[in-house]
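Help needed: design a sequence for this.
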C-alpha cells in the first residue's frame, strides 16, 4: 500500500501537464502588508496577506479609503510600489499627503470603464507591484453602458455584478506574482419585504472570492473638549468577517480617527492601555505609574507620552506584553 501511495504521489507531481505541487512548495508562502494600526494588525495577525484578495466594505464616509491608504503608506515605508485605481474620481492628493502618503511615489490610474480598469489591474499584478487598490467597486462601469447610444434608460440586468465577477475570475490567478489586491465597496439600502436590508454593488460573489473580508462602519463622534459639540473626528469600527490566512480575532475593534490627521498611533495605544487597566481613569482624571501627576482628558495623556518617548516605548511594550499574555491564556484555556 505504501509503495502504491508513493507511486501515485510521484506520478501526479511529475506530470508536467498538471498544476500540482508539494504542499510545502515555496510558491504557497505569502507575506503580509501591515496596517501599522495596532488594533487592525492584531485581528488580521499582522496585516492583509500578499498574493490574496481583500475586501473592505461598509457605509459611506466610514473610513474605508483611509484604511486602504494606510496599506499604501506601509508599502511605501518598505520601499514598495502601490497602484491606486480611482474608479470613483475621488483621488485627493492634498488629503492623501496629509495622511502620510508620498504622492510622488504612488501610481494613480483614472480609467473611464471597467475594461480599462481591468487592463490596468492585470498589468499591475503581472508586473509584481506590492499592492493594487480598486476604489471602488461601486464605480465600475462596463464600456457597453458607458458608450451606449440607447439612452440613459439602457440597463441590462445585473450588469455591474456580472462585470465585477468576471474581472475577479481573471484577476485572482495573477495574484501568484506576489501582489495584494484590495477592493473597496459601499453598502446600499436594499428593498426588503419586511425590514430594511443592505447590499453591495457587484453582488455577493465578491465575498466568496475574497480571502480576507472586513466590514467598516462609523461609530461615535470625537469631540474636543469631550463635553463640547466641537467634532474633530469619529470612531472607525472594523470587524473581521472572513480571513482564510491567519486572522483569528473575530471581533470588532474601534479606532479613533481625527479629520485633521488620521489615526494617531499613540492615542490607539493609550486607549488599549485604558482597556487593559495599565492606565487608570477616575472620572476625568487619568494616571499612569510613570506620570508625575494625574492629568485631565485623554489628549493630555497622549501629549505626555509624546513628550516622553522613553516612557512611551516602555508603556507600548507593556501593552503588547499584556495582549500577548492574554491571548496565550485564552488559547490554553
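Sure. Designed sequence:
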Amino acid at each position: 500500500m505504501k509503495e502504491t501511495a508513493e507511486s501515485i504521489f510521484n506520478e501526479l507531481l511529475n506530470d508536467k501537464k498538471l498544476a500540482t505541487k508539494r504542499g510545502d512548495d515555496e510558491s504557497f508562502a505569502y507575506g503580509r502588508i501591515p496596517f501599522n494600526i495596532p488594533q487592525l494588525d492584531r485581528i488580521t495577525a499582522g496585516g492583509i496577506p500578499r498574493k490574496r484578495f481583500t475586501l473592505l466594505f461598509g457605509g459611506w464616509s466610514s473610513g474605508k479609503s483611509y484604511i486602504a491608504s494606510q496599506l499604501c503608506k506601509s508599502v511605501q515605508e518598505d520601499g514598495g510600489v502601490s497602484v491606486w485605481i480611482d474608479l470613483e474620481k475621488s483621488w485627493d492628493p492634498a488629503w492623501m499627503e496629509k495622511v502620510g502618503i508620498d504622492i510622488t511615489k504612488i501610481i494613480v490610474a483614472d480609467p473611464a470603464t471597467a475594461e480599462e480598469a481591468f487592463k490596468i489591474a492585470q498589468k499591475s499584478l503581472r508586473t509584481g507591484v506590492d499592492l493594487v487598490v480598486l476604489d471602488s467597486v461601486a464605480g465600475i462601469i462596463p464600456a457597453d453602458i458607458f458608450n451606449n447610444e440607447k439612452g440613459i434608460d439602457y440597463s441590462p440586468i445585473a450588469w455591474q455584478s456580472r462585470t465585477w465577477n468576471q474581472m475577479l475570475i481573471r484577476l485572482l490567478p495573477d495574484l501568484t506574482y506576489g501582489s495584494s489586491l484590495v477592493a473597496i465597496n459601499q453598502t446600499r439600502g436594499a428593498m426588503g419585504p419586511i425590514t430594511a436590508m443592505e447590499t453591495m454593488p457587484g453582488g455577493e460573489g465578491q465575498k466568496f472570492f475574497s480571502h480576507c473580508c472586513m466590514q467598516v462602519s462609523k461609530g461615535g463622534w470625537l469631540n474636543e473638549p469631550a463635553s463640547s459639540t466641537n467634532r474633530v473626528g469619529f470612531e472607525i469600527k472594523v470587524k473581521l468577517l472572513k480571513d482564510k490566512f491567519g486572522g483569528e480575532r473575530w471581533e470588532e475593534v474601534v479606532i479613533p480617527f481625527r479629520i485633521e490627521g488620521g489615526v494617531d498611533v499613540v492615542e490607539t495605544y493609550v486607549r488599549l492601555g485604558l482597556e487593559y487597566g495599565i492606565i487608570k481613569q477616575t472620572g476625568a482624571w487619568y494616571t499612569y505609574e510613570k506620570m508625575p501627576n494625574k492629568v485631565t482628558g485623554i489628549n493630555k495623556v497622549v501629549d505626555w507620552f509624546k513628550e516622553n518617548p522613553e516612557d512611551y516605548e516602555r508603556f507600548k511594550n507593556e501593552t503588547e506584553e499584556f495582549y500577548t499574555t492574554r491571548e496565550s491564556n485564552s488559547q490554553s484555556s
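The chain has a mean pLDDT of 90.
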